[in-house]
Amino acid sequence: MEDDDDDVEYERFVLDERLASSNGLCRQFNSILVKFVTAHLRARELHRKILSYESERDQADEEEEVDVLQHNYLMLAQLVLLYFRRVAGEQSRHDDESGFWTTLASESIEILGALQQLLSTPGFVAVIGELLHHDNSLVRKKAMQLFNERLQEERDSLTSGEALLFIDMLDELDSILQNVEGSENSVNIQTALLSVDILARNFAGGHSKRFQQVLPTIVKYVDQDVVNAPPMTLHLFGCAFVCLSSICRHVGPVVFPLLPKFFPRLLNGIEYCSSTNGVSGTKAVLQCLLAALEVFTDKIPQFLGPYLPAVVRALLSPAVLSTAPSNAQVLMSIDCCFLNLCNHVELRQLLPTLFGAYEHVLTLQSDTSVTRLFSVVATVVNDLDLAGIRKHLPSFARFFVTSLDVRRVHASKLQDLDEVEDEVLECLVQFILKLSEKQLKPLFLKLAEWAQTHVGSSGKSGDISRRIVFFKLVVKLSDRLRGIFVPYYAHVLEFLTSALRESRKVLMQKPPRSSEESDSDDDDDFFASEEEPPTKKVKLGSSTSIVDAKTERELNTLLLSTVVRALDGCFVHDTDGFMEKDRFDVVLSPLVDVLDVLQYDSSMREFVLETVAPCLANLAWAAKSDLLWKPLHYAVLMKSRGDNASVRLAALVTVEKCYQVIGDEFLAMLPESIPFLAELMEDTNDEVEKTCHRVIKQIEDISGESLDQYLTT
């Protein structure tokens, strides 16, 4: 700016009479003027230039410059408020069909929005305080929005005195929330709750009494039945809980006196919102409620004892546990809630609650609810110390024994029984790994006794269900404990071999067929070999018998598979000579006879070739004696002379596996096998013949010499 411009005198602005006399021009002028002021308030560089010019002219110090500018901002804010009141008055007196006054009022408020960034904190709070008492609800809403924006932007730079000015606004916000005259709309109440929430997140930790005073007012918005509530009331319900949780996060036990009023409502709200997740808006409210529950379980778990069963039931609800990708936030909150309960609630309260929830989740007919319960129990188990194990071992034992009966008692309530059973077993194994030798042995013997107990009311299938789950447990323990667990087989070896015989006996019969299949196969049955054991003919129309027989066969197939895997675990991890002669003799015949199941059920081919054959080879490895190898080798070779090609193939594969596992030491068995191999080289079945040549080639590779001279002789 040039020096010779310093003394320029500007003429006083005079409104043109034509502008004043024309209603349209006057309106246009007001609109342009308001937009002009807003735009230039946002151009801060202009303010700096004005200050710079004033300081050069008046040589005022920097502090005085700021004071002058703040004074002018405050004066402008007062003028804008007066102007807005005038506009609001005109708006109420006219129909405003054109929308001019409504638009002008909105643009006038925008001036305050730009001005709030320029006002000092005292000036800003004073302006907001006046706006909160304005008759127009939109003005009050805008004031709270400006308040929220300013607080979030400047929280870190506020002095203690400025922070108190913001905290003092709690009284104004409390007045709006109380809504004594009933004139406040739901949107403004929601905005006020948001303002209190922001204040709580920033200041509640150091001013607990101030926030304690507003708690009863907030609780008023959650102490209601949400089932029949309109959508806006439901949103206020969620916002109020967000606000409550923010206060609780920083002041904790201060909310305890009001717990009976709001906590049952929280659980009811979670149940309602999860059951109506398709309704517009309920998903967002559900996230708010679960986030609030997460805070309460973290900050005041010591007061939640009476509500623990209801909390666990709410968190295990199938609707809440929806695994939809869009529900990731909900699932994260659920995980955090359970983690808080596991970390903060005493075991004497938590364990009865979790164990008691088992029967409840089964009634929900939801696999997800059951598996989630056991994952929570596993979390508790993982954090158990020695003292906790000693104190609560009986409770855990009773719970797991009850849970292991899931296949026998609750199979009809589950979609994927094997998955649920596996989750139960994983949890039990995790618990067992925490036990000492002194604690493990009696528990294992108790479980073995439980598995062998006859369940009269459920007949054979009840017994077999228990055996299946127990042997699955043996498989898992063998995988985890390896050699440490091998001595425990001494208590169940005869039990295992007995199960082998029983399941093989069932599977040695032809699979049950429907009546149509029976009719079509009558001719085939007429020409059946007389050597085959007779199979019971299913009567026409006896569909129930067919289903029962099919179910029994499926259970025995699973039992056989599990028993073989359990025995294999013993053989593989036996490094101390556990499989001495007496035990070897107990296992040998039942295990070799499993090869015969291929006579009547070709679907078991993969199981026999990939599980039974390696298991027999591992038995030979565990025996570590050619004196024991000989009867095993001979028993397997005798199977190769059977009429069924699949059984002959299985015998060959077993011999092949023995050479693979044991190596050149097993060559001691070669002389005995030569006659059998010579016969199988010319087998009528192509696959058996090819496999025989492969086995011979393997033996030749190990021995380093050709077998042709022995085989041809």
**Mean of all residue-level pLDDT scores:** 87
What is the general shape? elongated
Number of strands: 0
Strand residues, percent: under 5%
What is the CA–CA distance across the termini? 122 Å
Protein name: HEAT repeat-containing protein 1
InterPro entries: ARM-like (IPR011989), ARM-type_fold (IPR016024), BP28_C_dom (IPR012954), UTP10 (IPR040191)
GO molecular function: snoRNA binding
Region (Disordered): 507-540
Structural overview:
The chain is mainly α and 713 residues long. Among the domains are: 13-150; 179-330; 579-711, Alpha Horseshoe (Serine Threonine Protein Phosphatase 5, Tetratricopeptide repeat). The protein contains 34 helices and no strands. Helix 4 (62-93) packs antiparallel against helix 5, helix 13 (259-275) runs antiparallel to helix 14 and helix 15 crosses helix 17 (347-363). The longest helix is centred in the first third of the chain and has 32 residues, at 62-93. The N and C termini lie far apart (122 Å).
Task: Give the gist of this structure.
The chain is an all-alpha fold and 713 residues long. The protein has 34 helices and no strands.
Write the layout of secondary structure elements.
Blueprint: H1 17-21, H2 23-41, H3 44-58, H4 62-93, H5 100-116, H6 121-131, H7 137-154, H8 160-167, H9 170-178, H10 186-203, H11 208-219, H12 231-251, H13 259-275, H14 282-299, H15 308-315, H16 328-344, H17 347-363, H18 367-382, H19 386-403, H20 406-410, H21 417-432, H22 437-452, H23 459-481, H24 493-507, H25 515-520, H26 522-526, H27 543-572, H28 581-592, H29 605-623, H30 626-639, H31 645-662, H32 670-680, H33 686-703, H34 708-712
Helix pairs in contact: 2-5, 4-5, 4-6, 6-7, 7-10, 9-10, 9-11, 10-12, 11-12, 12-14, 13-14, 14-16, 15-17, 17-18, 17-19, 18-21, 21-23, 22-23, 23-27, 24-27, 24-28, 27-29, 28-29, 28-30, 29-31, 30-31, 31-33
